[in-house]
Amino acid sequence: MRVLLVSHNYPRFAGDPAGAYVARLAQAAAAAGVTVQVLAPHAPGAARDEAQDAVRVHRFRYGPTALERVGYRGETDRALRDPITLLMAPFYLRQFAASARRAAAEFAPTVVHAHWWFPAGWAVARLATPFLTTSHGSDVRLFDRGAVWRRVGRKVLRRASAVTAVSRFLAQDLERHAGPLARPVTVSPMPVDVELFASGRQTPKAAPPRILYAGNLVPAKGVDILVRAYAVLRQRGVSCRLKILGEGPARPGLERLAGSLGIANDVEWSAFVPQQRMPAEYGASMVSVLPSRGRAEGLGLTLVEAMLAGCAVVATPAGGIPEVVQDEETGLLARDGDAGDFSRQIARLLEDATLRERLIATGSARVRDTYSAATAARRFLTLYDDLASSRPAR
Fold it and tell me: What CATH fold (topology level) applies to the domain 2-191+372-388?
């Protein structure tokens, strides 16, 4: 079995969180005996060719190094507002498709696995090799952006021999947008490094108790609601501190909001840290939160990581989050966009040790097997074998 894994988002260096779950799947498939080669875009500071354990990675060039900024972007709106991104996008897409054709000819894969239907699924859609595409969330939301995106997306998904999504929520959205496909969309969550994140349990809890947000700082993540909720907690006299770990265009506005609410000195800001340091970040925190809005969250793997590290979780019922956080069983759900309710749910976990420990125990037990690399690899290996024995749907 030879699998060409294609993605616009793949770790550029050791500890890079970009596409880390895609890399875990590649490594697990290789450990099971599959020959895996990865195709991803080049980025400043990344090697063009390298071996990461048993997985070979090739990063295609599409311009001068300083201008290779199209891949690895966390938010479509932000990318489309960047003049350099707009300038380089045609070169990027052309080289993505050409590099996929070259890789398929040279590597001769049994199956091609494209992560995100755009751009990777689009880039491989006309290859003769059977291909499957996995949707992670941001690509599904492209269907909401207009008729052109819907038309392109339907063509890609209907050419795919199989389509998977990381949550039931996303699978239902894909089937609603794409219409009849070669086969029903399969739900196949991405893996986390179970043992790595479980090691966070050895980290002493911070004092006063810490509330942690880890993720992109973009409007869809609802971090402004978290800041307002934290202000409510401080007004009530609840002893706690807030750490916001992440990067993105919303940070200046969030800092101004914290200042206007009088809590600027109680909020700790941090840029992203390497994956190896995240277990300790979760482990030192009492509560980890994900206040996403509307349909923006495909699943919420940070919640899985937090549970494994012995951290209680509060989130909103946005997108696929309820598939990870079952309210009152594995964590608590607060009303979307309601800072008051979010503060109440956080306070419950800070003040009720019995509730907190029960949710942590149940949550970590449920996610340990579902999101392990071995479990994810088994799902995809079965699918790879199935596709290899059949002709691609066209």
Answer: Rossmann fold (3.40.50)
Query: What is d(CA 204, CA 118) in angstroms, rounded to the nearest whole number?
Result: 42
Per-residue pLDDT at 79:
59
Q: What whole-number distance in Å separates Cα of residue 119 and Cα of residue 99?
A: 13
Question: Can you name the CATH fold of 194-370?
Answer: Rossmann fold (3.40.50)
This prediction's pTM: 0.87
What gap in Å lies between CA 231 and CA 228, rounded to an integer? Answer: 5
Query: Do strands 210-214 and 287-290 pair parallel, antiparallel, or not at all (unpaired)?
Result: parallel
Please give the pLDDT value at position 347.
Answer: 98
Pair 68, 96: CB distance under 8 Å: no
Distance CA 299, CA 284 (A): 23
- Average confidence score pLDDT of the chain: 93
If one counts every other C-beta atom within 10 angstroms of the C-beta of residue 340, the result is: 12
Residues paired with 268 in a beta bridge: 243
pLDDT band at 34 (very low <50, low <70, confident <90, very high): very high
- Per-residue pLDDT of 158-185, as tens digits, reads 999 999 999 999 999 999 998 888 889 9
Q: Are the C-beta atoms of residues 267 and 244 closer than 8 Å to each other?
A: yes
List the domain boundaries for the chain: 2-191+372-388, 194-370
Strands of the sheet containing 241-245, edge to edge, are: 267-270, 241-245, 210-214, 287-290, 312-315, 332-333
Same fold, 2-191+372-388 and 194-370: yes
pLDDT score of 393: 45
